[in-house]
Amino acid sequence: MVDLFIDGAWTAGSSGTADVVNPFDATVVRAVDQAGPADVEHAVAAARTAFDGGPWRTTPASERGALLRRVADLLIRDKEAIAHTETLDTGKTLVESRVDVDDVTAVFRYYADLAGADAGRVVDVGQPHVLSRVVREPVGVCVLITPWNYPLLQLSWKLAPALAAGNTCVIKPSEVTPLTSVLLVRLLEEAGVPRGVVNIVLGDGPTVGAPLTEHPDVDMVSFTGGLTTGQAIIRASAATVKRVAVELGGKNPNIVFADTDFDLAVDYALTAVFLHSGQVCSAGARLIVQDEMHDDLVAEVGRRADRIRLGNGLDDATESGPLVSAAHRTKIEGFVASALAGGARLVAGGRRPEDPDLQRGYFYRPTVLADVHRDMRVIREETFGPILTVERFADEDQAIALGNDTGYGLAGAVWTADMGRAHRVASALRHGTVWINDYHPYVPAAEWGGMKRSGNGRELGPTGLAEYQEHKHVWHNTAPKPMRWFAG
Ligand code: NAD
After folding, report:
1. Which one of 103, 145, 329, 472 is least enclosed by Cβ atoms within 10 Å?
2. Could you name the CATH architecture of 253-436?
3. Catalytic pick among 96, 175, 281, 396
């Protein structure tokens, strides 16, 4: 089996292979083909030719939508196999992987329905003989670069709207977790995507990602990943003035007022941060609790965190899987060590598990840290791991100030029984998503994205389609008269 899909054909790539590792036990899942510079050139050329020569961009939008709907049907058919692969690749539980496949299916269906739904508009310019219309056209060749935590899901948020809008694509998944992206491209091929419209190249950032972002024949880069990579991509795009959409990290506050039901507050504080071992851009890593509830909540969240069952994602009894790699675990250990050195109090975790069955994988116990302060790295930086910090506040103003005291602005939550206060806080928070008395839900029809250093674009919803469209104004003067602007 070969893994690169370029110009409608599967190919091995020119840079050998790289092992994909199961984070549960550090075994090799399989070796995947790696692209080299020639493959990057080939993929961009194929996407360019398919865009410029058509017929994809001039295909009726309803037909593009029909293709997306066929992909959704194939996802349902292959759900178990894809979820299984996602768990082997990322370490997340099978339950989470199944939810991911369901969500991806919903995203393809949503954009299948939206394709062509907005055909542009006629503008009344006050001159009856002038027909003025604004039409939506595809941007062109789009490079889609994705991270390792939600490989399939993040790709669907880009690929489905890009295709619905009539673009051609070159996909560059994370080198850490590329397997399900390849499976998705196989489904697109089966669904009948025309030659060159979808291409996938595997490899790391410097070898494959960077040349794609600098390439003069690429019109747009849509990137989800870390802040420093996003900054590098914005810089790289400057020379060719590409359209760039970046979805970056988060440092997300989960604010709990003392009038919240205690059991709900505990339950959701755990889910907010420890889902997928905290490797979630919107993880509620900062629990911010009103004084009256603070001590009890810290104690109970710590007690429950200590009971989370770690294990193999394929095992039904497992509640949380490993971290994605040894290097990532080392980074998480560094965050905890520096917080403890700075005076934080360890309430739970703070260590690797002792279970002999988990020694080969990259496990780390869910960790709760209290008595933290704003200057600690664990508060200022995204950890992207199973670390919950707890801060306290006295009143609403202080809660808002703490919630906004971050360079990021991706997501956050407010918990209270007072709905007036809930909506005041929600409107004061500078985050792209705010949940009231909930955490984590999203729907394909509602926009997702960050403020401040969490990003500059929006995925999902109608805006998620518009990101992949140009708005062109066509002015038709049906009865031109001499203008005589220049007398001679
Ligand atoms: P990363 O930035 O290390 O890598 C992301 C992708 O960029 C990978 O495919 C990588 O190969 C590629 N890349 C690396 N260097 C590149 C370069 N110079 N040019 C082009 N491409 C390059 O991120 P990661 O560690 O894979 O993912 C974790 C990050 O993703 C976290 O910060 C997380 O918050 C963020 N994330 C954000 C969202 C969101 O919706 N905002 C969703 C998921 C993940």
Report:
1. 472
2. 3-Layer(aba) Sandwich (3.40)
3. 281
Mutate to test the pocket of ligand 1, among 212, 252, 281, 325 (most ligand atoms within 8 A of CB): 281
Q: Where are the domains of the chain?
A: 4-248+455-474, 253-436
CB 408 within 8 A of CB 253: no
Here the tokens at position 467 are: 């990101």
Active site residue 169: no
Is 96 among the catalytic positions? no
Do 33 and 2 contact (CB within 8 A), yes or no?
yes
Residue 458: C-alpha distances to residues 173, 224, 418, 432, 451 (Å): 19, 11, 30, 9, 10
Q: Domain 4-248+455-474 carries which CATH code?
A: 3.40.605.10
Q: What is the pLDDT of residue 56?
A: 96
State the pTM of this model. 0.97
Q: State which ligand 1 atom lies nearest to the alpha carbon of 157.
A: 40
- Picking from 471, 250, 237, the residue whose alpha carbon sits closest to that of residue 381 is 250
Report CA(456)–ligand 1 centroid distance (Å): 15
For residue 387, the cross-strand partners are: 367
Tens of pLDDT, residues 122-143:
999 999 999 999 999 999 999 9
Strands (E), 198-258: 198-200, 220-224, 243-247, 253-256
Cβ neighbours around 21 below 10 Å, total: 22
Residue 145 in contact with ligand 1 by CB distance below 6 A: yes
Whole-angstrom distance, CA of residue 219 vs CA of residue 44 = 10
